[in-house]
Design goal:
The complex is a heterodimer. Chain A has 16 helices and eight strands. In chain A, strands 1, 2, 3, 4, 5, 6, 7 and 8 form an eight-stranded mixed β-sheet that branches. In chain A, a hairpin with a 5-residue loop joins strand 5 and strand 6. In chain A, helix 3 runs antiparallel to helix 4, helix 3 crosses helix 11 and helix 5 packs across helix 7. By secondary structure, chain B is of the alpha/beta class. In chain B, helix 9 runs antiparallel to helix 12. The chains are: A alpha/beta, B alpha/beta. At the A-B interface, helix 7 and strand 3 of A face helix 7 and strand 3 of B.
Chain lengths: 421, 432
């Protein structure tokens, strides 16, 4: 490699984490980003996709997606907050704001009743829209009479995401044959393997203490309590402000996933409070996945899925038949996969836990309906296969040298995965 | 009841009993594949469709279907049979036939590993085929840009059945609008509602005792024990094998092969024709009693009344709205069977405690094969308020026990009155 190329590559690798940096200002612009993994899918940026080098045509897409918007996986947060506010209401200790909040909570809970963890109508739409765009963006491939293999986690919201996605594809191209399945038998190709238990690293405890300090510091309920209750001293006998704040955060953030309800509770928090709580959640996710240098490498649990993605792609390249592979899973699967694939949004974690959000911000990686698409291209008369990576439908980069960014030579990408093991 | 309607009722009931399908042992010998109880592959419908009276057009279909072909819901049968045979082999107590059988059973068990209760590819195809026929039989409705609401039980095989069904519909008519869901929220009507109090029946206990003897007699497994195992003269491991459990296990394993044609594994030779049919009779009687369809049994079908109410309420709603629509529900045999009984379908109402002969008047393959389903198809005529409805059991036109002047069509006002009264008379109460 020429020295000049090396310098450019080095510069790029220094710059790319900077490009992905997240600021408080950015979060304030769309406060629902503070929902972390509750953040409803924002859709692609609108930036035009880079055309493939001349003569290259897409012949395979490997898609890995999280289920769409969902109800909270447990209604406990509703129960806690309604119980607490209700008790205060009995004693006439709610402010006007508190009363308004309680009324909204009741509506939200009635809607969420017996729907714990269910896909919402918005979640279904997100998947139909992603499928629709996939068809439009890669219609050379998707208008063929493809045989498509779709697999989902055994969780209902993932299955329904798959159904909605596949139905939209089928609507656009009635000649497709899509085989959908969700079996425990196939889970090692679809979700992370929790039976793999990476040995905790030395730094884990220290990191955890730092995270807990940020998280607890962010959950300072003083202002919130004053806004909801007329006598905070009196209600403190039966209300733990810290617990209530956490419950209300979860409820308020998840409501963005049920827009039909037309209820907002996000304004009970200041932007600063939301931002602070979010940094705590963000750090928690990154540490629990192992994306911080020295943290326990939990992403190893997703290694087999990566291997399956690579080997399936190789088989399809060998066989030559154009197709699409669809997998539907969870946030806890997409995040480690993004890291294992080397997507820039998931790289660059720093030991500086307090400022971790600046380097990796999970609302950019695992919003509801988050997805990673690897698009494969080939050209008649050559064996060279190019790939590009899309995170949430935006082109992204991996730390592999290339002469045709955002496209990469598949053989170089594979070598990188092999080395990274 | 007026004289005229009484006459009509009698004519209807006569017609019903005349067409009522009888099942003989001879028939089962010709079609042993039907003797697989609730594992039975979905039988091709007769294809006979009576044209509606002039001017009537279909505008609504409401449906409840069982999931398609599946693996066994757990691996208990494999565990018992293979476990016992494996140990016997270790002691050198398997006959050559036993050894060879064990090999085949292991192939089947390996294929089923971690697939308990999963829909098989055949199950997916069954649902696509039913959806396809719905479109071709009622294009005036299904080939329009109508809205379809689909719900499934929260069990994966039902959800995948729904997905396959809906996928076929959208492939045939991309202008359909569909919502699919599978939520605990809807389970109160989608599956047997276990909050409902089931009235007690004094004769229930004796019926279960009778069934138990019937099961042990028919699935005695004596021949199987001789064919598969060597019997040394002294006490041996073989004596620990429960021949009934072995026979029951093998009947289930053999029958479930109906769901797995791709596996291409022949197990039919393990059971004689009589054993196969006896197993069928055992499960026929068991289901009839379990669901309360046998005179004197505890009426478990009370747990299905919320589904009837859901059918009625949603039908009334769509009729009032003047819209068109299709309503799909995907669930289980434990709903389809008692629901067909509540509705009074001729296939389901002739249960008897004469277990020896029950199969002659009540046969599971007509009721709950894999993908078994019930459809109500509604018709209306421009300029008339009269709504007609017909009932399909596994896509074949069937009858309900009320009078009509246009069988197999019924006047909705009579149907609704009949079922609403049934709900009222049931005095449904909920557990505290």
């Amino acid at each position: 490699m020429k020295a000049r190329h090396i310098i450019i590559l080095w510069l790029l690798s220094c710059l790319s984490p900077l490009l992905a940096q997240t600021s408080k200002k950015e979060i304030f612009r769309d406060i629902y980003r503070t929902g972390s993994n509750y953040f409803a899918y924002p859709g692609p940026s609108g930036k035009q996709l880079t055309a493939a080098p001349e003569g290259y045509e897409p012949f395979y897409i490997s898609h890995y997606g999280r289920h769409g918007s969902r109800y909270m996986s447990s209604n406990e947060y509703y129960v806690t907050s309604i119980n607490k506010l209700d008790s205060a209401a009995q004693q006439g200790l709610l402010t006007t704001k508190g009363e308004e909040v309680l009324a909204k909570l009741r509506i939200g809970y009635a809607d969420a009743w017996h729907r714990d963890g269910d896909l919402t109508a918005l979640g279904a739409r997100q998947h139909r829209e992603i499928a629709h765009r996939m068809y439009e963006r890669f219609s050379e491939l998707l208008s063929l009479p493809l045989k498509i293999d779709a697999k989902s986690s055994t969780s209902r919201r993932c299955m329904l995401s798959m159904f909605n996605f596949c139905q939209e594809l089928q609507r656009l191209n009635p000649n497709m044959q899509i085989d959908m399945n969700a079996s425990k038998r196939d889970m090692k190709y679809v979700v992370e393997d929790l039976d793999i238990k990476p040995t905790p690293t030395i730094a884990t405890d220290t990191y955890e203490q730092q995270r807990a300090a940020i998280f607890e510091g962010a959950h300072n309920p003083r202002r919130l309590m004053v806004s909801l209750f007329t006598d905070t001293a009196q209600v403190s006998a039966y209300i733990d402000g810290r617990e209530l704040m956490e419950a209300l955060y979860n409820v308020a953030e998840d409501l963005q996933n049920v827009p039909e309800l037309n209820i907002e509770l996000i304004d009970i928090f200041s932007k600063e409070e939301l931002f602070n709580m979010w940094t705590g959640y963000n750090a928690g996710w990154l540490l629990n996945t192992g994306l911080v240098p020295g943290s326990t490498p939990y992403y190893e649990q997703q290694r087999e899925v990566l291997d399956s993605i690579v080997s399936t792609a190789d088989r399809i390249i060998r066989q030559g038949e154009p197709t699409v592979t669809l997998r539907f899973s969870h946030d806890s699967s997409v995040l480690p996969l993004a890291y294992l694939l080397g997507l820039k949004e998931a790289m660059g974690g720093k030991a500086d836990i307090g400022n971790l959000y600046k380097y990796i911000s999970i609302d950019k990686i695992i919003p509801m309906a988050a997805n990673i698409q690897i698009v494969f291209y080939r050209k008649a008369g050559t064996d060279d296969v190019l790939v590009k990576f899309l995170l949430n439908e935006n082109e992204t980069s991996v730390p592999v040298k290339t002469d045709c960014a955002p496209y990469y030579h598949w053989k170089d990408v594979k070598e990188y995965y092999h080395r990274k093991k | 009841m007026t004289m005229k309607s009484l006459k009509l009722t009698i004519i209807c009931l006569l017609a019903a009993s005349a067409t009522q399908a009888q099942t003989s042992k001879a028939e089962l010998r010709v079609h042993p594949e039907l003797a697989s109880g609730n594992y039975c592959n979905y039988p091709q419908p007769t294809g006979h469709i009576t044209a509606p009276p002039k001017g009537y057009e279909p505008f609504y279909i409401t449906h409840y279907g069982r999931h398609g072909a599946r693996y066994m819901t757990d691996d208990d049968h494999y565990k018992y049979v293979i476990g016992k045979m494996d140990t016997a082999q270790m002691y050198g107590l398997l006959t050559p036939k036993g050894q060879e059988t064990l090999e085949r059973l292991k192939i089947a068990a390996e294929d089923a590993r971690r697939r308990d209760g999963d829909l098989t590819p055949l199950g997916g195809r069954q649902h696509r085929a039913i959806a396809h026929r719905m479109c071709t039989n009622y294009p005036e409705l299904l080939m329009q840009p109508v809205s379809i609401k689909a719900n499934s039980s929260t069990v994966r095989r039902c959800m995948l059945s729904m997905a396959n069904f809906c996928q076929e519909l959208i492939a045939l008519n991309p202008s359909l609008t569909m919502t699919m869901d599978a939520s605990e929220h809807d389970m109160y009507y989608m599956i047997p509602n276990d909050s409902i109090v089931i009235p007690e029946a004094e004769t229930d206990g004796p019926l279960y005792e009778k069934l138990d003897s019937f099961r042990h007699e028919k699935l005695n497994g004596r021949r199987l024990m001789d064919v598969l195992f060597k019997h040394p003269s002294s006490l041996s491991y073989i004596d620990s094998i429960d021949s009934y459990q072995l026979a029951d296990g093998l009947w289930n394993i053999v029958s479930d092969m109906q769901c797995l044609p791709e596996l291409n594994l022949q197990l039919d030779d393990l059971l004689t024709e009589d054993e196969l049919i006896d197993g069928f009779r055992v499960y026929n009687a068991s289901w009839c009693l379990w669901e309360g369809l046998m005179p004197g049994a505890q009426p478990s079908y009370y747990a299905i009344y919320p589904l009837l109410k859901n059918f009625l309420d949603e039908a009334s709603q769509i009729i009032q709205s003047g819209e068109r629509g299709v309503r799909l529900r995907f669930g289980h045999d434990s709903v389809v069977l008692p629901f067909s009984y509540i509705l009074g379908f001729q296939e389901a109402i002739n249960g008897t405690d004469d277990m020896e002969n029950l199969h002659e008047r009540f046969a599971l393959f007509r009721l709950i094969p894999m993908a078994g389903n019930i459809q109500w198809v509604f018709f209306r005529k421009q300029g008339s308020n009269d709504i007609l409805v017909k009932f399909l059991m596994n896509e074949n036109e069937t009858t309900i026990p009320i009078a009509t002047d246009c069988a197999p069509f019924y006047h909705w006002k009579d149907v609704e009155l009949y079922y609403r009264r049934m709900l009222k008379d049931a005095h449904i109460t909920y557990k505290q």
